[in-house]
Amino acid sequence: MPAFAIMALAGAPPDKKNLYELDLREQWLEFYSAASSRPPAAGTTINEAFLAHLREIVTEPEYIGPEFIGFCHSCGFPEWDEDMVLARGNSEYRLCDECRQDWTTCDQCDAYYPGGELTTALSDNEYCSSCINSYYSYCEACEGWYPDEDEELHDHMAYTGEGCCDSPQLKFAIRNDGSEPLENDTRVTIELPSGVISATGMAQITEYLQRRSMDYARLSYNVESLGAEWQTRQGNFAKRLSSKAYKDYKIKLPADVLSQVGVLARDHSNAASMSIEITRNLNQPAHMFYHEDSCWWGSYGESRCALKTNGGFGLRSFSSYGAVTGRAWVLPLRMGDAGLYPTFDTRGADAFVVFNGYGELSGYAPARVLAHMTGWTYRKIDFSCEPMFVNAGGYLIAGEAIARKYEKQGIDLSVYQHSSLFADEQARAREDADVAA
Questions:
Q1: 184 within some domain
Q2: What are phi and psi of 154, to 5 degrees?
């Protein structure tokens, strides 16, 4: 209700209503029903007749008019003009509060439109036809709209999958479990050990029990005494834990706790024969990295540029027929005075962080792969690296001391989209060589 209606005098004549008492919808329904037997005079619309009717029954008729009351173009009900919203960019086309809930605003002009009338731009924002044609241009390569103001900066390559830049060091290698280092774009099959729960898996089980209940604290400190084998003559790990809890502490572990312990134990002990490959050629289409709808080939295209120019690479897995079955992003890290930072030196790196895993390389899987190849341990950590879009933290692969330190504090990095890191590292290497000479 408008402010002037609330300020209306309370002392109205018996046959008149104050504006603040007026229920426009109720009045409209009564009037509309009566109009079926008493239609408005010739040349007068029912809306005009309704306003004339209101002027007859209120104490402030000067506030009854089209400048104060409008009619919703969706449901047709009357509404105070100041409570209505602009629709379809037309000052004569307005919606009541209830109807606007089913409409969507144009991200340029803020007018309301039915969802089907808006156009989605490459940025994923939605615009009306007037705004999209006035302020945006269509890119045939991207098959989408981009802002005219970004014409000189628009990079359709980021949307087509080709990317706007290449890694400055496409050729590289990483350690491979004591074998010859694994070169980029070289497919190999690795065998992850089975039957024995990794140290990380045992730590995860211990921490889970401690988080779950204070009653399980004493039990959690003796998890190692059960041995790290998944299956023994006394049963699987979860069954042995259940027996120990009841025998030593008179604790009966509930089914959901045993189920979660079993999941953690299996995740960190399952055998795996996996065909993998590492690459910095990230300008291939998204489907070549398993997740064909990845935002790194769309609205977050700058993420790939940042990974490529800061030493990162992709880890992919393949089926026996050569189809991509999973992928994860990997960022090599070096330890400095201020902590871990990106590096192109994959052989001399002090750690790797793995994130955004999909398919066969989702969850702990890529961390187990790299830990097996490097001989290090791994931990789930909080991880972010602007401007890269990181889904849900990451996994740190490093020596025990580094892994333990960053498991609690996490890693929060900020890098340039198009970094000069490679050139800077090369320059430092030359300086060090000159000094040594």
A1: yes
A2: -60, 130
